[in-house]
Design a protein that fits this description.
Mean pLDDT: 78
Radius of gyration: 36 Å
Shape: elongated
Order of helices and strands: HEEEEEEEEEEEH
Distance between the termini: 114 Å
Helix content: 25-40%
Number of helices: 2
Structural class: alpha+beta
Strand order of the largest sheet: 1-2-3-4-5
Length: 261
């Protein structure tokens, strides 16, 4: 009598379907994790680029203020703020002048930073305008009248949601400065964070999402220093108190002798 041993090779259809289903589930979970990590990385990179752009803009404004508010020119800094379609918007005008023939006052250089609301995109655009006799590029802009940037507002950034200028005058914080006298410093704030509902039920940009920089005017100026003399009451000093800085030779020698013994 022969025993028939049957051996089965391969998989059944049900087993194949189970394997494919598990493989699809693993692949789907892997793709979901990949998309989540990729989205988080994109958000992180976007925040880094946004923060870098904010600091670059503030640095450029600081350079313009340092250059135009330099000693030797009759410089003025004027700015104003307004609420434009729910966005904090502002304008900064930097100008220095000189007196030409006939003591006539002429503009040597003027720079304007300002935001403009776009109703189509529902965002603010930040523009910069440079004009005057002093051109920025001495090679390409030989003639100020033929300068490509003279009198033209060049877009710097899109999507600005907050742009504000402040100055401190005594104990007051002013939102506008129109005086011919230069302020001591200007604080510039900017943000690209979208508007959201704040804890006080208002719509705006959270304070932690704003980037500020305080720019000093004429940092090379001499700051006067006055020494105030004060009279010390010597009666409150203890006459028997020992000066810790006074060391007698006798005490030192006695200490050395005790060590030798």
């Amino acid at each position: 009598m022969k025993n028939h041993i049957t051996s089965r090779f391969g998989f059944t259809l049900i087993e194949m379907l189970v394997v494919l289903t598990m493989a699809a589930m693993i692949l789907t979970a892997t793709l979901m994790i990949y998309q989540r990590v990729r989205g988080s990385a994109a958000i992180l990179v976007g925040h880094m680029e946004q923060s870098q752009l904010e600091h670059e803009i503030l640095q450029k404004i600081a350079e313009d203020i340092d250059r135009l508010a330099a000693p030797g020119f009759e410089a003025t800094i004027k700015f104003r703020n307004k609420l434009d379609n729910g966005y904090y918007s502002g304008q900064l005008v930097l100008e220095n002048s000189y007196y030409g023939s006939g003591d006539k006052k002429q503009t040597f250089e003027q720079i304007v930073w300002q935001t403009w609301y776009s109703p189509e995109d529902d965002v603010l655009y930040l523009y910069r305008m440079h004009d005057g006799l002093n051109v920025e590029d001495k090679v390409l802009e030989k003639n100020p009248e033929d300068s490509p940037s003279a009198g033209l507002y060049i877009p710097v950034a899109r999507g600005v949601t907050f742009f504000e200028l402040r100055v401190q005058q005594g104990e007051n914080i002013l939102s506008a400065w129109t005086a011919d006298k230069l302020p001591k410093a200007v604080r510039v704030g900017i943000s690209f964070t979208p508007l959201q509902e704040l804890p006080d039920d208002k719509v705006g940009v959270p304070e932690e999402a704003k980037t500020y920089r305080t720019i000093a005017i004429d940092r090379t100026r001499m700051i006067p220093y006055q020494f105030i003399k004060r009279d010390l009451d010597l009666d409150v000093l203890d006459e028997e108190a020992e000066d810790p800085n006074s060391v007698s030779l006798d005490e030192t020698s006695e200490g050395d002798e005790s060590k030798e013994e």
